[in-house]
Amino acid sequence: MDATYWQDATDLDLLKACVPDNQQAFEALYQRYEKRVFHYLMTVVNDATLAEEILVEVMLAVWKGLTTFQGQSKVSTWIFGIAHHKAVDGLRKVTSQQRGGIPIDDIMESPDPKDGPFEDTNKNRLAELTNRAMINLSADHREILHMAFYEGQSYPEISEVLGIPVNTVKTRVYYAKQQLKKTLQHHGVTEDIL
Amino acid sequence: MEPEESIHTEAMLLPNYVNRTLPTEEEQQVATHLKTCVTCQQELQEVTAMQAAIKNSIAQRPGPSPAAFSTLMRRIEQEKQVQTQRIPQPIAPSWWETVESAFRSLFEVQWVPALASVLIVGQTFLLLSLMGTPGGQHHQETGPIIERGIPQAPPQGSVLKVRVGFQAHAQEQHIREFLQTIQARIIDGPSADGTYTLAIAQQGTMTLNTFLAELRQQTNLVQRAAPLNP
Questions:
Q1: Measured between CB atoms, does B202 come within 8 Å of chain A?
Q2: ipTM of the predicted structure?
Q3: Which CATH number fits domain B159-227: 3.40.720, 3.30.70, 3.90.550, 3.40.50?
Q4: B77 CB within 8 Å of a chain A CB
Q5: Nearest C-alpha of chain B: how many angstroms from A87?
Q6: Whole-angstrom Cα distance, residue A170 to residue A102?
Q7: Each residue of B115-150: pLDDT tens digit?
Q8: Does B63 touch chain A (CB under 8 A)?
Q9: What residue spans in chain A does CATH classification 1.10.1740.10 cover?
Q10: d(Cα A77, Cα A91) in Å, to the nearest integer?
């Protein structure tokens, strides 16, 4: 039984299958979340090396918490909640140690203009500019835009992950979006492209 | 703190409207509002475009290296070993333990708890009847039981433990300095909910509540503080 066996299982079923000590099921759970959590962590900490270190910590905490997960929230909300706390902790350490890492900007796979039609190139250029603009935002704003716009999470879910009221989530998403728009315009992106 | 300005309630809901995560009632409210509000129509276009741009931007990033999974599995193995070491290994009983367990089994009959309960009830009645005597009343007048020799201060060397969540913006160095000042130390954490377990040696008149109050005063560092097992 390999990790693909769990492909159609729900998150909750997969989580239950991990107990007691089912390595294949846990590997499937890891594969399901590694990229999502890693991308989220990269958005927040803006350092690929640190993001990978935190990813390991997050999934270790998930493994430790398998037997205590109550099922009161969605599995994804639970995992992203852990990721949020670990990212905050990681950021705190970065701020105090000012470690040097690899910023996201340096590991982005830059689009080759020859790769696709003009429209795709424009889309890729906008994606690249968006990435640069996101880096200039505060960690709070980057994080909430990632959750609302990339993960497509609802406000109550974000509220649970971040531990803040739903109304604060709404206003923070709004102002983060305004800030991103301002930064994109500073990078030369006009309103008609947006 | 976010700046205040006049914004339509519906505009704030647009990101969830676009990704279809609004409850039906709010979704209808936004749809109705959009029919007549040009500002929110523009806002909707921006949100949609920005969502696509962010999705494309993040989708271009590579995933974690395969080494991350190897590291994780190594850490899990280490964790399993630690857990195994914590579980005491069963040892073959000595002849004395065998004899002792035989004697112990004599006291494991069902009437023993019943007898113990009767004795406790009997002792309680005896105590109450003694307190009802003039001598007992005298004791009540002179003060509470705590003044009759039971020390008010907790035993020396007791440790208070609390769960603490630090402010997201608080720097590690400032937290460490503060903990050093109050002579507390982190003994566990962060847990899945981002809290740490703090321990402090109980001194003088310090109680759990005064310790918690001291922590909660540090609003720039401490987000929440609660007893370990409320």
A1: no
A2: 0.83
A3: 3.30.70
A4: no
A5: 10
A6: 32
A7: 778 888 888 888 887 776 554 444 433 333 333 333
A8: yes
A9: 1-107
A10: 20
